[in-house]
Amino acid sequence: MAIAVITGASSGMGREFVRQIAEKYPKLQEIWVIARRKERLEELKSMTPVRLRIFDYDLTKERSIWDLERALYEKKPKIKLLVNAAGYGKIGHFRELTYQDNAGMIELNCRGLTAVTYACLPYMLPNGRIIQLASSAAFLPQPNFAVYAASKSYVLSFSRALGRELRDQKITVTAVCPGPVDTEFFDVAEQKGQTAYVKKLAMAKAPQVVAKALKDAACGKEMSVYGALMKGTHLAAKILPHRVLLSLMGIIF
Ligand SMILES: NC(=O)c1ccc[n+]([C@@H]2O[C@H](COP(=O)([O-])OP(=O)(O)OC[C@H]3O[C@@H](n4cnc5c(N)ncnc54)[C@H](OP(=O)(O)O)[C@@H]3O)[C@@H](O)[C@H]2O)c1
């Protein structure tokens, strides 16, 4: 049974991945969708031609990972695509956010993503595609978004190294690194701090970012960066000293 597994499927880019993967991969027998809001996942059924299997899991809970492992062991599916889109960020000074907010980003963005990847890997098909939602925040440290940016640097570094390890198995890993995308992400992110106005001007649309990510993953690219502005940011982060960029960011934002 060929399937896709998509975390963070109840909204934003994860939801868009469900829609586009169902359209682009009609031979899939099931898409396994994971998020906490069950009713949101149920709603997806009416817009998706491929059969959905719903897992209303909190991926910060060890129990959810065990349950996923058990479901995989019982069905022994062949995973064509794994998309790890579950994640959140909280804007604000490190000390102004609660410890739970800060640690929770690591729990979900790093530990949850790693655990789901580890659980799914034995079932990945040769030529399978792993798509990990990192962020352009992975490119350099971000004061006022410190733990989030660090968690996404982890995702980027982990994904690139894993991609190399999996070369012989012909499984590719694509780290998706968008700038701001218009989703519910900001409802959570802005509870204590505000997104800089300049960043909001660069807001991309989820369908475009996801379409590019799927195309880049199909080509086996290790990174997917949407838009000229984010490509420029990536280049700048590679060639300029980060202390210079951090000072610039301090002026612009
Ligand atoms: N939007 C942006 O500007 C942006 C930019 C770069 C990267 N990203 C990254 O892209 C990914 C998708 O974000 P998005 O923009 O689509 O945001 P979103 O609309 O807020 O979606 C986040 C998803 O994560 C799920 N989630 C949150 N906590 C969870 C938990 N404890 N267990 C399981 N699932 C959980 C949410 O579902 P439930 O609430 O139902 O659990 C939701 O489906 C994230 O990793 C984010 O960091 C976003």
Automatic annotation (TrEMBL):
Keywords: NADP, Oxidoreductase. One of its GO terms (cellular component) is cytosol. It comes from the Bacteria. InterPro entries: NAD(P)-bd_dom_sf, Sc_DH/Rdtase_CS, SDR_fam. The keyword NADP applies. One of its GO terms (molecular function) is oxidoreductase activity. Coiled coil: none annotated. Signal peptide: none annotated. Pfam families: adh_short. Belongs to the short-chain dehydrogenases/reductases (SDR) family. This is SDR family NAD(P)-dependent oxidoreductase. It comes from Diplocloster agilis. The lineage of its organism: Bacteria, Bacillati, Bacillota, Clostridia, Lachnospirales.
